[in-house]
Amino acid sequence: GKFVNDLSICRASPIQLISSNIEVAKPGKVPGGKTEIPFEFPLQAKGNKMLYETYHGVFVNIQYTLRCDMRRPLLAKDLSKTCEFMLHCQPQKSKVQPTPVDFTITPETLQNVKERTSLPKFVIRGHLDATNCVITQPLTGELVVESSEVAIKSIELQLVRVETCGCAEGYARDATEIQNIQIAEGDVCHGLPIPIYMVFPRLFTCPTLETTNFKVEFEVNVVIVLHDDHLITENFPLKLCRV
Amino acid sequence: MGSVYSPNSCPNFPTRFHSIALYSVFFRHARVRKYGAELQRCRLDAVPVDLGDYHPLKPITVTDSRSRRGGRKGSTSSSSSSSSSVAPDPLSSMLEGTDPLSLFAAASASETPTLSHSKNEEEVGADFEPWSAKRGEILARFTTTEKLSINLFMGSDKTSSPSSAVSEKVRTRLEELDDLEEGSQRELLNLSQQDYVNRIEELNQSLKEAWSSDQKVKALKIVIQCSKLLSDTSVIQFYPSKFVLITDILDTFGRLVYERIWSMCSDPRPIPDSFSVEDVNDTAKETCLNWFFKIASIRELIPRLYVEAAILKCNRFLNKTGIQETLPRLTAMIRGIGDPLVAVYARAYLCRVGMEVAPHLKDSLNKNFFDLLASFRQIHGDTVQNQLVIQRVEIPVYLTLYSPAIHWILQCVAYRAPDVLLTEMMERCKKLGNNALLLNSVMWAFRPEFVAARATDFIGMIKDCDEAGFPKHLLFGSLGRSLACADPPESERLPILNEAWKVITKVRSPQDYINCAEIWVEFTCRHFTKREVNTVLADIIKHMTPDRAFEDAYPQLQSVMKKILTYFHNFSVLFSMEKFLPFLDMFQKDSVRVEVCKSIMEVFIKHQQEPTRDPVILNALLHVCKTMHDSVNALTVEDEKRSLALLINGFIRMVSFGRDFEQQLSFCVEARATFCNLEPVIIQLIHTVNQLAMETRRVMGGSHSRKTAAFVRACAAYSFITIPSLTSIFSRLHLYLLSGQVALANQCLSQADAFLKAAVSVLPEVPRTISVEGKQRSSEAFLLDFINSFLSTLLVVPDHPEQGVLYLVRGLLNMVQDYTWEDNSDAKVRVYISALPLLAAMSQESYLYTIPKVDSNETLYGGDPKFVAEISRLCETLIGQVLDHLKTLGREEGVRRQGSLAFSLFSTLLAHGDLRNNKLNQLAVNLWNLSHKNGHCDTRTSVSLSPTYTFSYKLLNDFHP
Q1: Nearest CB to A174: which of B165, B342, B377?
Q2: What is the pLDDT of residues B928-960, one digit of tens each?
């Protein structure tokens, strides 16, 4: 068997993190019928490299594959089969500081506003229970619409992944929405706390990753759509980890 | 008729038999009977049974048929203990479930609950009205004529979501969940309500198809699309029905997912219903978790909420606390729904699923209710008001849309809840403004006893409600519903009724009025007298008469009638209610009218204990019965006629004028005219009149005065002219015979003669086949039965002085001879054989039975040899005929019949002939041999002859080969 790893950054050539080769069967005849050959090997990174969790992104791809070659005598072609396997890291930390965050959104707290006076008045308060999140646990919190001149159309949680990678030309940054969850629809009751709750999607999230060459980070946006189609967004960076 | 009995017809009876001599000898020797002595001899000896002895009729005591549950048990054993004296009737003890079938039934009934549930206190009992009971009601009530639309694609989502650079992969994945079929947008506009229902049903079907063809993702898509429809509140008056339709689909989905995962755990053997997390294998857990992950990523709030609620039960596969953690989270999630109507129905669905999966988790139910209260003001908010203006829906109509959901939530909350909690909830409702809607549901859903005890308070609260909001008659309706099954304190009852009726009577719309009044009739009937009920009826008539409003309210009016009949069983009280008959007159549609009349008669028959002559009752019921009778026409089906006749007969049986027999007869005359189209009623009337004659005889001690004699003749005349109007031939025959017997018993000889003659003259009309319960059956058996019973009556009928000897017997036999019997039938000969015992009995000096004060032939002829000779002559002819017939049978394939007939003639000879006569003896022996010749005779039957003639049997044994 052969064991290969690819890491491609900025269309740069893949970086190999790991490579090992073991012989699972000695030369000889394979008896007729089904033959199962057990094997195992330790996952050991090359040199000073580190092993990262399997991850498929836009710019960053961390993939582990397993290739099995079967050499055959003259007149018969060699056989080969490749398959991907997933790598989950050992828990990084045993305990995470949740670092909750409180927020208040009013016209005054907003940035990037051209005409602040044309904005309808509103007060929205809330909190996130944690910005340091365990990837297997949902993101939780609460949000209260205390007042709003214009009726609310929808409140959504937008989970965004940010990939950054540096290479010869400088560095590239790409933000991708990976999940959008609506937590309120219509003109919700004022003063009544609405739960913030989002499960991290399994295939599209991984622990926050920072290496010398690239970064994979996550953010959540609380998006409030007003009935007059005003869109209010509040951004919260998250740190995901495995416990 | 006369020709049949003319002496000339007698010689017609065949006499061409050649061996007469032998048989005439035989029948001169009809065995002399001493009936009294025989009776003494034949009586069984009474042997006292010891308590310890086995005896089949002894009471059977059953050991534990009910106390133990499950398994096959409950052996029946004849108890030998002294307790056996308690239940003297073995049949009644059989009825208590000792037979094996009811034992099985009882066992399986007791096993079912233990199979499906583990803990009793966690179950929802039969006292909880299930959702299935509400479904139909909601679908029927919330309908619309507006056009509906189904949008199975939320196209606007894509553009509004502020995604900057969604990767292709992610995009497809998100779309996958949104589209039913790749890239398709299906918007169905302008659907009528029925179209809409059909479309939803199609979706339900395609869900099942997708599931069964293993397209799980497609199934999920369908469910998501369906739940999305619940966020759409256009055509708002249809929303409750839409909710019902779509949650049906969700229920289906939830069941499919649960069963799928459950079956994954069933390898190698099924897991018990009360499984724990440890019983679930990893594959099943992983699959289950996948479902939850998929659902958690549904973008929109409402589908995410509904679909997760639908598979709530699946949490059992993952961990112990899953359900109790999920329920509060979903409850809180509903706060995100802005539209109060959509939110309240989502709460109702969550409560419904919660009650089903984890009824012990009361906190979530309560939380739902308190959240509902907290967001209650939304209902009166601007967003809702604007929507109502656009849709042109009025506030009271809009508010009633909430009722099914709030009723349901409160029903779940109130189920087995302590009074303290209910009181607290009621107090909280009180504090809210515009709370009529809640108040209504509280009265509807809380225990009736709870409501009834506070009825006066509730009335106060109803009065305080805003006039413009929730309709007050609905509030009173809900209160009335509770009071119909639970009683308020006695002192408050009259004030409650007065207060309620004050409001009800002011309701303008007849439909609203009757809906409410109908409910309160129950309370009125339950606690008050005919005076109050009469007042209520008067009020109903007043409201429902203008513009013939009653035409649209038959179901409610029928229900009013039903309630009155439930509480008033005394018909003289009922009919003395001044407004009762005018109320009955409001049922003007024929079919409804007959239904109502039927229900009145059913109650009368069930509850009237004593016969009555009360003119009020008689007049009223005669009117009711006439209505039923007059509804019969050519198109009326047999079953309907039968049930109507049954009811009318029940009435006729209950009419008695006591000693005033003439009055009774004239009632029957009137009834005959009134009910002429229902044959069973006419038959009943004839029976009644016959009974009347017999009653007269009993009162007179058997000797009629001139007056009573005339009266019983009048009775006979009534029957005589009534019977021919019947179409059923056997009814006619039996009634002629019966009336003849009654006439005879009353010493009306010529009338009796006329009846019996009439019966004989009708005989040739008997068709070969008759219809019995809709099937064509041969009439032969019925005819033979009748003839036998007719023959036994003839023993006591004295010969008419102007007619020949035995003219009725001969007339009957002539008819029998001329009748076209079925081919290959022995019926005729069987009649001949049965006539022999009659003739033997007639030749006795003293008859087996006679009628007091009527001289039978025994007295008339006093054993005159000419009379005896005439009997012998008849016997000869009969036996000749029988032997003739036996011969023909010998020639054909009829040996089996020959044997059987020979044996029956043999038994008759044995019983009624004097076998000491040699020739007779010889004939009997020949018959015995003939009957055994072909081995078709059952020896057991032939040996188990009655002890009366065992001695003859012994005599015969000497001749036996």
Answers
A1: B165
A2: 888 887 666 555 555 555 444 444 445 454 444
B660 CB neighbour count, 10 Å cutoff: 12
Which token pair is B903? Answer: 């044996």
This prediction's pTM: 0.66
Whole-number mean pLDDT of chain B? Answer: 81
Q: How far, in Å, CA of B722 to CA of B672, rounded?
A: 8
Whether B544 shows a pLDDT value over 50: the answer reads yes
Partners of A224 in the β-ladder: A155, A232
d(CA A58, CA A175): 9
Q: How far apart are CA B544 and CA B560, in angstroms?
A: 13
State how far the Cα of B725 lies from the Cα of A4, in Å rounded to an integer.
107
Q: Is B299 on the interface with A (CB under 8 A)?
A: yes
Whether B760 and B815 have beta carbons less than 8 Å apart is answered as: yes
Confidence tier at B309 by pLDDT (50, 70, 90)? very high
Contacts of A186 in chain B (CB under 8 A): 337-339, 342, 383
Separation of alpha carbons B63 and B67, rounded Å: 9
Q: Higher model confidence: residue A141 or residue A165?
A: A141
CA dist B236 and B443 (Å) reads 25
Q: Which residues of A touch B334 (CB under 8 A)?
A: none
> pLDDT-based confidence at B593, cuts 50/70/90?
very high
Check CB contact under 8 Å for B300 and A152: no
Which of B78-92, B203-217, B607-621, B724-738 is the least confident region?
B78-92
**Which residues in chain A have Cβ-Cβ distances shorter than 8 Å to B167?**
58, 176
Q: What is the pLDDT of residues B489-506, one digit of tens each?
A: 999 999 999 989 998 998
Q: Residue B776 has what DSSP assignment?
A: E
Q: B666-696, pLDDT tens digit by residue?
A: 999 999 999 999 999 999 999 999 999 999 9
B723 contacts B757 by C-beta, under 8 angstroms: no
Cα B229 to its chain centre, rounded Å, is 43
CA B96 – CA A50 distance, rounded (Å): 82
For residues B842, B843, B849 and B850, what is the CA-based torsion angle, rounded to 10 degrees? 70
The end-to-end CA distance of chain B, in Å, is 51
The answer to whether residue B608 scores a pLDDT higher than 70 is yes
Question: Would an 8 Å CB–CB cutoff place B6 in contact with chain A?
Answer: no
CB contact under 8 A, B163 and A177: yes
- The share of chain B scoring above pLDDT 90, in percent, equals 37
C-alpha distances (whole Å) from B726 to each of B659, B730, B739, B819 are 29, 9, 14, 22
d(CA B451, CA B481): 10
Q: Do B899 and B937 contact (CB within 8 A), yes or no?
A: yes
Convert the pLDDT of each residue in B792-834 to its tens digit: 999 999 988 888 888 899 999 999 999 988 888 889 999 999 9
* CB within 8 Å: A184 and B333: no
- What contacts 24+ positions apart, CB below 8 Å, involve B778-786? B778/B822, B779/B730, B780/B821, B780/B822, B780/B825, B780/B827, B782/B730, B783/B827, B784/B827, B784/B830, B784/B831, B784/B834, B786/B730, B786/B733, B786/B734, B786/B737
- Within an 8 Å CB–CB cutoff, is residue A65 touching chain B? no
Count Cβ atoms within 10 A of the Cβ of residue B172 and give its class: 0-12 exposed, 13-18 middle, 19 or more buried. Answer: exposed
The DSSP bridge partners found for residue A62 are: A7, A55
Direct distance between the N- and C-terminal alpha carbons of chain A, in angstroms, rounded to an integer = 32
Task: Report, as an integer, the average pLDDT of B334-349.
Answer: 92
Amino acid at B107: A
Within an 8 Å CB–CB cutoff, is residue A86 touching chain B?
Answer: no
* Mean pLDDT for the stretch of residues A123-144: 92
